[in-house]
Design a protein that fits this description.
The protein is α/β, with parallel strands linked by helices and 209 residues long. The chain has helices at 3-8, 25-35, 69-72, 86-98, 109-118, 135-143, 157-161, 179-202, and strands at residues 39-45, 49-55, 78-82, 102-106, 123-127, 149-154, 171-174. It has a five-stranded parallel sheet with strand order 4-3-5-6-7, sandwiched between helices. A two-stranded antiparallel ribbon has the order 1-2.
């Protein structure tokens, strides 16, 4: 590959395959390696081939003393991903499935509301700009019906946050999002949801679990 392609090949959504590629394969590999404190080096020359060097530490590191975003999401979660566009839905499915989570998708807020009726979810990740009911409206509705942490994933994150955190939403993150950034946003959403539930219990608003 050329030097320009070599420098960009690990970036999410970058692909030389046109419509046939999502640009997620190498990005997911890079995310997994970084998650294990490793590094990826690439040697490539057009017409000759490409070599990837993945370096991982041989030492076992004890991280039990601190709770990190990684350990927060170590156990498989039941997640509902909502987006009216196929490509973002597919990206979320791949990211979340790669981390071992159980994922279902919904094509709009109506579909999400129907699925939410029949199955409890730990996390709901929803787009904002959708036909009919938008993501903020969906979040406010779902928050009344369950305890799922709700992450609003949108290309208008700065505009939305300028008015404060929307009702029912636990975290707002911008599109496009990397695998690592998605993990962090999910972890913050879960933390805020738990803190909110704890405060409500202490105030006597909801019964203790």
């Amino acid at each position: 590959m050329s030097e320009e392609v070599r420098q960009k090949c690990m970036e999410p959504f970058f692909s030389t395959k046109g419509d046939k590629g999502t640009g997620l394969g190498l990005a997911m590999v890079f995310g997994i390696v970084k998650r294990h404190d490793g590094s990826v080096e690439i040697e490539s020359e057009p017409g000759k081939g490409t070599t990837f060097w993945i370096r991982l530490s041989s030492e076992l590191v004890d991280r039990s003393a601190s709770i990190t975003e990684e350990t927060e999401l170590r156990h498989p979660l039941h997640i509902l991903a909502v987006d009216d566009e196929e490509v973002p839905r597919d990206i979320l499915m791949r990211y979340l499935s790669a981390d071992g989570h159980h994922v279902e998708v919904a094509v709009d807020a109506y579909d999400a509301s129907e699925k939410f009726t029949w199955r409890p979810y730990d996390v709901v990740i929803t787009d904002h700009a959708m036909p009919g009911i938008n993501g903020c409206q969906l979040a406010a509705n779902l928050k009344k019906r369950g305890n799922a942490a709700i992450l609003l994933l949108t290309g208008s994150s700065e505009t939305i946050l300028a008015g404060g955190m929307p009702p029912g939403v636990d975290e707002v993150a911008g599109k496009p999002i990397t695998h690592e950034a998605l993990r962090g946003a999910m972890s913050r959403a879960i933390d805020r949801r738990r803190a909110s539930a704890k405060a409500a219990r202490e105030a006597g608003a909801i019964p203790a679990e």
